[in-house]
Specification:
The chain is built from 23 helices and ten strands. It has 605 residues and is an alpha/beta fold.
Length: 605
């Protein structure tokens, strides 16, 4: 993690100018009581009226100088704070993006949002306005005490004691607030997660009539957040009055004690006037000390949270000098691959298969059998814990992640669409390289152009977050069009036609069969999705239970055969013979699949 001091060092010259402006403004501010003393002693008491105009010009110069330097230092500190927060947010987001999938498996989205937004904002305050005030308060206090000592060191001890008391109270308060702010930051992340989940899944909540339950869940965390903020308030209420009372009493005590010195001839009337003005000028640093301690404690707690994110390192990394394949053909080989996560039992065991470039592999199996894990290993979202995965004869761990992942188009089981136009969702990742003709061709191949072009703005239609307003089948077809438009050597479809009717699915299957130079890996629960594959793997409990072509697996009368019977009821004569009308007969018998089909004419809500 790049230290905050390193970010400040990047803008050192700008900060130097701001600090010099701050010192100049405070120094000029300290000159005003000196001028006041001259007015009292020389003009009012001494009767030197001729000096008044020069003293008044001095007041004017001090005022103009203070205004100019105050503007420069506040603008510069604010500008630098905004720059540093922007740099930190950029670097933190890049670091989060670099982390492997296992990090996101155990980290809530709401927590990451809190780190990127609220915690960076707290540090922004610390390196901007709050940091400026801390420097100003320190210098302001020091120079006032020096000026006071130059007038009367005995009387200055009174102000010094008051400042010492405020400093001790500030340290005590900061220590108590540190623990509270850390707890507030944690609860804020949890609260964000609960809110994000409920707002993102509001339709599910309503569908199951869980509004009351989710409201109670949110309110329980909201109550905890309230209690922590009340704990913060109790600390402030307990100690903050010290910073208010002392500044009110100090000028009065200064006047009482200083008046005694004037009577005894140890001070002039002008000096006591200047001293009282200094004592009143030292009031605001005392008042600010409590608030600054509060804000600084918040920034320290936020920095600790951000450092924990930076302590995470990606488990999937590139070698120092990755191999670059001149042209990826698309041959995929799994060689005795096993896989397990740190907190789970073995997910895949001894998986071995080879898909030649341009061929098709079908993968079937029950939920949790490890089908999706195979694809995640192919893309190196995780690394295999045993065996190796090869692309065109190269161990994928020796390849660059960019080349590997850009060689695979992936249609995910859980379709994710961004809140953007349909066209830009299809172009995802290659917006500058895909023209409209390519997008429309991919949409036609994915059987998506029909409903898209019936919309008022067609491909410029902005869809809602995660595709809200589209049916499940429409989202799947847009996702398939997105994959087809990339024209990558490897195409992976993870149960990507589950929401489509049989006729649409068959049209997409025909499109896939025309991609002769594309390696296709099709994961599905339905026989119709994988039946034309050159080889079909049937997974069970993370291992390959059966493998072969559609006809070979039916003849074996094992798991694949049982799945076929559960979906179609019986094997038709055409299927037994493997005749050309097998697809038609299968479609006629698949009533269950047709009932799950979606109406093609649905429009955006």
């Amino acid at each position: 993690m790049k230290k905050i001091s390193s970010y400040i060092w990047d803008y050192r010259f700008s900060y130097l100018g701001a600090v010099l402006s701050l010192l100049a403004a405070v120094t000029l501010d300290m000159a005003a009581p000196r001028l006041t003393a001259r007015v009292v002693d020389d003009v009012i008491v001494g009767g030197k009226i001729g000096e008044l105009k020069f003293l008044l010009l001095g007041f004017l110069g001090v005022g103009i100088g203070r205004c100019s330097f105050q503007y420069i230092k506040e603008y510069t500190f604010d500008k630098n704070g905004a720059r540093i927060s922007g740099d930190m947010r950029r670097d933190l987001f890049r670091h989060i993006q670099s982390l492997s999938a296992d990090f996101f498996d155990r980290t809530n989205t709401g927590e990451l949002m809190a780190r990127v937004k609220e915690d960076i904002d707290h540090i922004w305050d610390a390196v901007g306005y709050v940091g400026m005030l801390l420097i100003e308060v320190s210098y302001h206090t020091g120079i006032i005490l020096v000026c006071m000592c130059m007038i009367n060191w005995k009387l200055a001890l009174l102000s010094g004691a008051a400042m010492l008391l405020c400093g001790v109270v500030a340290v005590i308060m900061e220590r108590k607030l540190g623990a509270v702010y850390e707890a507030i930051s944690e609860e804020n992340a949890v609260l964000n997660t609960v809110a994000e989940e409920n707002l993102g899944g509001v339709r599910t909540v309503k569908a199951f009539a869980r509004e009351s339950f989710e409201i109670d869940k949110f309110l329980s965390h909201n109550k905890r957040y309230y209690e922590l903020n009340m704990a913060q308030s109790k600390v402030l209420v307990r100690y903050y009055p010290v910073f208010v009372v002392i500044p009110l009493i100090l000028p009065l005590l200064t006047l009482l004690v200083g008046g005694r010195f004037v009577i005894n001839g140890e001070m002039t009337l002008g000096q006591i006037t200047a001293f009282v003005e200094y004592s009143m000028n030292i009031v605001w640093p005392m008042e600010m000390l409590g608030w600054l301690t509060n804000s600084f404690s918040s920034a320290v707690a936020s920095n600790k949270k951000i450092r924990k994110i930076y302590e995470e390192t990606p488990t999937v990394t590139e070698v120092t000098e990755p191999v670059i394949i001149e042209k990826v053909q698309g041959k995929v080989c799994f060689d005795h691959v096993s896989f397990h996560k740190a907190d789970r039992h073995e997910i895949l065991h001894d998986i071995t298969f080879t898909v030649e470039a341009g061929k098709t592999l079908g993968i079937m199996g029950t939920t949790g059998a490890g089908k999706t894990s195979i694809i995640q290993l192919l893309q190196r979202m995780y690394d295999a814990t045993g065996g190796a995965v090869y692309l065109d004869g190269r161990d994928i761990r020796t390849l660059s992640l960019k080349q590997l992942r850009t060689s695979v188009s992936f249609v995910m089981q859980d379709v994710f669409l961004f809140s953007d136009t349909i066209g830009d969702n299809i172009k995802l990742g290659k917006k500058q390289f895909l023209d409209f003709r390519t997008v429309r061709k991919a949409s036609m191949d994915a059987q998506a152009s029909g409903f898209i072009e019936r919309m008022e703005k067609q491909y410029e239609t902005v869809i809602g977050e995660r595709g809200v307003g589209l049916s499940g089948g429409q989202k799947q077809r847009i996702s398939i069009a997105r994959a087809l438009s990339k024209k990558t050597p490897i195409l992976v479809l993870d149960d990507s036609t589950s929401a489509l009717d049989t006729e649409t699915e068959q049209m997409i299957q025909q499109t896939l069969r025309t991609l002769e130079h594309t390696t296709k890996i099709i994961i599905g629960h339905r026989i119709s999705a994988v039946r034309h594959a050159d080889e079909i793997l049937v997974l069970a409990e993370g291992a390959i239970a059966e493998r072969g072509t559609h006809e070979e697996l039916l003849a074996r009368r094992g798991l694949y055969y049982e799945t076929y019977l559960s979906q179609y009821g019986e094997i038709s004569a055409a299927e037994e013979e493997g005749g050309p009308d097998a697809d038609i007969r299968t479609a006629e018998n698949s009533r269950t699949e047709k009932m799950g089909g979606e109406a093609d004419g649905l429009q955006l809500v």
